[in-house]
Amino acid sequence: MLESVRADFYKGAATRGVNRGAVEQVFKLMEPFAEYGFNKAHATCYGLIAYQTAYLKANYTVEYMTSVLNAFRSKEEKVAAAIAECRRLSIPVLPPDVDFSNLDFEPEGEAIRFGLLGIKSVGATAAESIVAAREAGEQAASLQEFCERIDLRLANKRVLEALAKVGALRRFGHPAQILLALDDAISGGSSAQRERAAGQVGLFDAMPELAGAGIPALPHVTEASTRERLRWERELMGVYLSDHPMNALAPAMQPYVGTFVGDFSDESYRDETATLGAIVLSIRQMVTKKGASMAIVTVEDLTGSMEVVVFPQVWESTKSSWIEGEGILIAGRTEQRGEEWSVLVESVVPWEEASRLNADAVRSKLTVSSGGRRYAKRSVAPLPNGGIPAGMVPEGMETSAPLMPEHAPAEFDAAVAVEAQPAEPLAGAMSNPDPAEIPAGAVLHIKFKARQSVEETIRAMEIVKGELRARPGATRVVVHIPQGGGAQLLPMEQRNGVAWDAGLPAILRDRVGGDGIELELISPAI
What is the greatest pairwise CA distance in the chain? Predict the structure, then answer.
């Protein structure tokens, strides 16, 4: 945006007699501010809010975290992150319970009680009915008595099943018992409510000392497994609350795990290889421009959750390995976009399979293509003719002030705009885009198609950036980015080169999809 007014700024300063050197110096001072800046009043407001937030968290920690949980109640990932923060701060988050929970999350001593509205299938009117029945009298002595007291038109069977699965009815019995006895309890509760509405008084209403005598005991049944109960918690509350399935898997996975999700707050992990051990939370399948299937998978370990990206070739060969709720070992390369981290998956081993193999066999399956490769250091000698092949210099570009792409992502911050120089055609231009070997001094040119949208271009640039950073080496790289509505391409030499291999063009084309980029390898005159 700032670049678009450079010419007007220079022209205006010149008409006022300002020295050009001073103008250039002032403009250079403004450039970093253009990346993200705002006025002092705005900054003051941000600073005050940050101070107030930090003060509340430090001095009223339980109340603050309760407010955070209520603010993000409808967003599962935010709730899970807030509960993880509560655990870090040693604040217990108590499970939902019809005897203690209200609608929202609420402080309970030095702990936080899970609110009824945080449970899927439990609406506001149903939760209000449950709280009102509790506040109207003593605790219900049995499941059927509980059903007699609440409004079953609002808190129906679906609501009660959800409450049973998350343990909110645990005082009456364990979840498996409750689920089996629910039909009879609802039937008995409905009959009692109809009788009261008709003005009838039953035997047990007239003789309180016999209350509960006519209610059948809960069936004797094996309690649901820990795995099943955790699955219910995750499904209905969006978080593992009473336990975490990784607690059972983590010790056995430890020899193969080199990275934890929580480690990715450290920028030193950018563009590194990573091996994770995690639980699969959700799978979102997508279709590329070429019609190939890929997936974005959310995984979680004991330190947090994140998305991993499974591109078509890997997805095709590992599709059966991704099962929600199951453990998995993942190897790939890390990628950071803004504040979000992900792993670009290259190989996986389902934990069920890994547990049957010996350690060497598991490690041999967890491979990353760039792992262990030695890369040559990049020469810093200048490129002849700016490294730009003939016919690729945008017409009319002023060499004194090369344009920068208006929408270029921060990922290309290492790039330097190459000034347009009168250039003779470079001898030996290689039209073959997939050479197996590369002559010394060759330059890889990557052109982003001007016909695609800005969003598509940015996505393609991010993908290319990740691949280039994952393969540091001696081959120079110039990227060409659409300018001025796509009519021009701005050449930008990357400060870091790439380690060439014959498979790189195919990888880039497959990941970008369609015809979003062109690759050309230019060798110097011999």
Answer: 108
Q: What is the pLDDT of residues 199-250, one digit of tens each?
A: 765 555 555 554 555 566 788 889 998 889 998 998 999 888 888 888 888 8
Q: How far is Cα 416 from Cα 476, in angstroms, rounded to an integer? A: 12
**CATH 2.40.50.140 residue spans of the chain:** 246-365
Q: Residue 345: count other Cβ atoms within 10 Å of its Cβ.
A: 26
Q: Output the six-digit token pair for 164.
A: 């049973």
Place of tokens 């945006």: 1
pLDDT band at 370 (very low <50, low <70, confident <90, very high): very low
d(CA 70, CA 326): 29
Query: Three-class SS string for 209-245?
Result: HHCCCCCCCCCCCCCCCHHHHHHHHHHHHCCCCCCCC
d(CA 370, CA 142): 62
CA distance 6 to 272: 38
Report the CATH number of the 246-365 domain: 2.40.50.140
Bridge partner residues of 277 (DSSP): 329
pTM, two decimals, is 0.57
120 vs 101: CA distance, rounded Å: 15
Judged by DSSP in three states, 352 sits in: helix
Q: What proportions of the chain, in percent to the nearest 5, are helix, strand and coil? A: 40, 20, 40
Tokens of 297: 């998978």
Q: What is the DSSP letter of 96?
A: P
Bridge partners of 287, per DSSP, are 293
Q: What percent of the chain has pLDDT over 90?
A: 33
User: Six-digit token pair at 256?
Assistant: 């193969």
Which H or E element spans position 342? Answer: strand 340-350
10 Å CB burial of residue 324 (0-12, 13-18, 19+) is middle
Give CA–CA dist 270/332, Å, rounded. Answer: 12
**pLDDT tens, 469-519?**
777 888 888 888 776 555 567 777 787 788 877 778 888 888 887 677 888
- Per-residue pLDDT tens over the stretch 293-321: 999 999 988 877 889 999 999 999 999 99
Q: Choose between 489 and 273: higher pLDDT.
A: 273
Q: Is 406 left (phi over 0), alpha (psi -120 to 50) or beta?
A: alpha
Cα gap 503→509, rounded to integer Å? 10
Integer Cα distance of 263 and 266 in angstroms? 6
The Cα-based distances of 330 to 13, 66, 230, 250, 490 in angstroms read: 57, 34, 22, 14, 38
Q: What is the pLDDT of residues 153-168, one digit of tens each?
A: 999 999 999 999 999 9
Q: Of 152, 165, 184, 160, whose CA–CA distance to 224 is shortest?
A: 165
pLDDT at 461: 81
Number of CB atoms found within 10 A of residue 321's CB: 20
